[in-house]
Amino acid sequence: MTVCLFCNDKLPYVLENGTCAAFFDKHPVSRGHMLIIPKAHKTDYFQLSCQEKQDMDALITAGKRLLENTYSPAGYNIGFNCGLSAGQSVFHCHCHLIPRYQGDCVNPRGGVRGVIPEKMND
């Protein structure tokens, strides 16, 4: 059995509520990149209970407020990778809240469509 990084590490939560918690990504895409996880081990978004989804959504909103007050980003990408084929590498559900900054890439058009580069500008 593989050790779950999110279950076994003592993560420095910056936000938490009843069923979920948020912390800064150890390998951020941008300054302030946060991960929001259920406290209970769930493999992906589709295993979350209704309460966990509500609590995760509340932390996405609270995380946005924290990032706005700390870093003043110009936008955000929010996303889940569900399954190996979708790029999931840690099999404990986690939502990426990625702040975006003006000029942080040449052409951000297409946003999350960029997970398949040739679809980025479709």
TrEMBL record:
InterPro entries: AP-4-A_phosphorylase, Histidine_triad_HIT, HIT-like, HIT-like_sf. A motif (Histidine triad motif) lies at residues 92-96. It comes from the Bacteria. The keyword Phosphoprotein does not apply. SUPFAM superfamilies: HIT-like. Residues 2-107 form the HIT domain. The active site is at 94 (tele-amp-histidine intermediate). Gene3D superfamilies: HIT-like. Keywords: Hydrolase. GO terms for molecular function: hydrolase activity. Pfam families: HIT. This is Diadenosine tetraphosphate hydrolase. It comes from Vagococcus acidifermentans. The lineage of its organism: Bacteria, Bacillati, Bacillota, Bacilli, Lactobacillales.
